[in-house]
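Predicting structure from sequence has reshaped protein science. With that in mind, we have picked out one protein's residues alongside their backbone shape tokens:
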Amino acid sequence: MNTNKFRHGNILSLKLSNFQTYEYQEFKFGPGLNLIAGPNGSGKSSIANSLAFIFNGTPKTIGKSRNIKDYVKFGSDSAVIECVVCKKSPLKIKRDEVKSLKIEENENINLKRKIGFKNGKPISEFFINGALISNKEYFKFVSILNIDCNNLTNFLPQEKVSEFVKLNSRELFTEVSNFLTSKKDDLSLIEDLYTLQNEIELLNVTINTETKKIERIDDNLDVLAKEMEKELQFENNLRAIKLLNYKEKLIESEKLKYKLSSVEVSLKDVKQKLKEEEKKIVELESKVKEYESRPELANYKKVIEELSRQNDRIFENCSRMNELLKKLQITYNERERIESENRRIKEDNETANIRKRKEEKILAELKSDLKNKITSILKKSQDPNIFINENNQLSLPEEAFCKDQSKFDLVFNDLENDKFNIENIEAILPKKEFIEAKRQAIQEKNDKFQSKSKTLQTKIEQLTRTKNNYNSAKAQRMELLYKFHPDTYKAVEYLRKNDIGVEYLEPSFLHIEIANEFKDELESLLSFIQLTTFLFKNSSDMHKFSKVLKDQMKLKINLSVADFSEIHIPKPDKRELELLGIEGVAFDYLIADTPYKNYYTTTGMFNYIPVSKNKIDDQIVIKTLKNVKRMIFNKLFIEIKGNRYNNEIISKSVGIKPRDLFSYSVDVSKIDKQLSILDRERKINLSEAESLLNEKNNIEEAIKIHNNNFGIHNITSILHSIVRVEQSIKEIRLKQLIYYDKNEILNIKNKIKSEYKILNSVLAKNKIPKINIDKVRDIELNYNNNKRDLSFKKNAVIEIKKQYEDRKKYEKEYKTKVKEVTDFLERIEEKEKDYNEKVKSLQIKSVTGRQLHVDPILCFKEEVLDLPEDEIDIRAKINSLTCANKVLNPRGTIKGDFISRETEYEKIKFDIETMRKKRDGKIKKFESDKLKIYENLNNNLKIVSQRFQGFLRMFGFDGLLELNFGQEDEDKNDNDENDFNSGKFLMNIFVKFRANDALRKLSASRQSGGEKSLTTVLFLLALHDNNTPFKLVDEINQGMDSNNEKRVFEVLKTMSETSQFFIITPKLLHDFSYPENCLVTILYGGENMKVLEKYVSSK
């Protein structure tokens, strides 16, 4: 390829393998204007995307899918993009930027990128002139070529054309800033300026934060100062409590000392008294010993002892005599009781003998009666004629009678021996089983006849009732209700016969009528739930009703509350219905009382269901009539529904079939025929029943005869009586008389006499000695008095010793308490010195000038003198101060916190001043640098603005580019205390497309699509400089009219003489004179073959 006309960095060719729509394709490009044309879907954008990928681009650059898999042709694992770039001048490559890359002097640059997947992850490989290099080195090499596909002025894909006009002023400046700087260092100056701006803003934020922090500390110091005052007050209160405790203990000490002295005096008195009492005890003990040595008193004691022994022997003898006398009395009593009991036994035995004779007589009579009855039964058992009935028929068969004479003889022999064997007797009696079996068979037949009669009677009654009911419309409705819903029928029948105290209406099925004109239409709208529902005025009546019929009777019925009063029923306007050709609504053709109409209006919206015999367009009705959701036209039921995804209305129609809800016809002649058949069956059954009744009567007569003549129960009852009487005779027993010893009383009397003799002998033998009783009594009295006094004195000494020990104990306790109180007072006096030092330490001098209010420290002794003297007043004062301290409750670290906070306050205040000075210096530098950069940028922008304005004026329009430094409207906020301008460089595009309009800022919403496209392409062309190797715009002419499109191509035609352009367009201009350096690439294939001739003729 001849590359003489190509400039450095121009693209010579492009090869695609398995990239998007291309399996393999190679493209050649020209040095000027390259038009890539083709219909939609032909792969135009794939070429733009491949150029983006080969020159440092990413899916984000393209603006389409972010998944790199979507750029690999379906069915392939990888795609390859290869591009040849023209090299006309040496590359300024540093050694550390692209290692081991050797490019010959006259050699073009071959760039290659391979994209694909490995283990589910996207991968890319990069090649320069066939050498595999890292992506970092590759992208650095592309930047050396001055190509940046991420800049919209260099590469503007189709998906980002609309995004270009959406850029705000700051984003627009960012995109084109490299075109407004003469050197790359100018961009770094802008970055440095923004960095300096961020530092200033950071300092402002820090200053504001620290200022707020110092304000919080200041508030905290105020709180701490108050807390310090609380702590000082707390300490003063503690000190006052200690002083009060000191005064309380001082008073207690004085009281204890007084009590101690009293105890010591009392102890001396008790000790003296104890000595005196001990001396008296010695005197009394000598007197007692003296009396004990007197002989009169010794003899007196001997006499007393002898008398005591005699008294003991007499007492023992008397005790034995008393015991014998008691025993004698008991024996007399027992003998009297036994004799009385024996007399009663004799009387009972006499009564038992009389009763036994009577029972034996009754037993003989019973046996005689039993023999007579058995003999009579035996004779009757041999006479069958006894069972002949009124018709001279034997009601008992021959085999029922006993023919064995030996059995009769056996029973007669038993009777003669007074034996009564029931089994032998029953063996010769006529067998009742034959009668019972026959009666059971007749009873079974009778039950069948009874059941059959009842069934026939029920059928006849039902058919008769049905026949009678067919003569009235209401009865027919009831029959239909019974057919459709038996439980509702049962409820109506019950309620018509019973009053449950509830106001209700029967189901509408029994009471509504429908106009014949729309009978089928309205019946299609009625549901059985509506038709069978009971209506109520209020819910309380409904609950009572439900309790009786649903809960108690277990009927499955429907209940509802309805409005029984006359209310206004809204309906569509009659004139609108007439204009639409509709006869009316369903409500008009429902014939019923007001509550029923209200119910169907509420539950079925009958007032908004148009009905007509005509064929009417439902869509017109929907648009004309509001609230209409259902309608019936020309025997079609139409229901209207909304689409869940949009506002579209969907109507569904279904044909109406006749339901005949209220019609019920029956052939009465069939019922009459059935009644005739049933009547004949009933008469036959009655005749058979009468015959059966005669047989039953004969059997009953035979049973009666058998019971009267052969009833074994008569014999059994007499036998039971005989057994009972025999048992009663056996139970009669005679009692034995009680035995007793008649000599026991005599023995006891002899023992008493013996004891009496012993007592007399004891009294006769013993002699009592003689003494001078008066003298002895005086001696004894004195002796006892002295002895008693001695005992009293000893007890008194013991009590005095106890008092002495108690007082010694009190003395010891009081001395201990006095010592404790004294020690306590001394400790308080020592601590008072430490407290004074502590309070002085709390009275610090505030660095921030705060005044801490504290009470002055007084002299300890002076304060104690001023305290109350009464213990109650002292205790009340202590309690008051304790409660006050509980309220104060200070922390123990207040002083340290206060000093720490004041130190922190001073440090932060110093740091703020330092930061403010530093910030002011940076602001000064920022303003100076900003002015220099702004002047440089504005000068360059004026050139671009003039070029942009010239392009627009070629089209009869006007425009302007403006550079500012500030904030976007949406980013503006309140300035800080220094009113620092924290904005950015902003660039705005102003355009005017009408003669009478003013210049207006370009925005996504203000201008039309064609105006935005024209402004975008002209602005990009105005930015053009020779430093950019090429520019690519994808379908920029969309939305332009043919005139503007032609003018844009004229501009491109002129500019392509100095730069390479790639314009992707879906169409070519027919009347445009394409330049010689213009290369048109037409894409087509498959179905697009037909458009080939149009593209060729356009060229």
In short: Residues 1086-1099 have pLDDT under 50 and may be disordered. The CA atoms of residues 20 and 140 lie 26 Å apart.
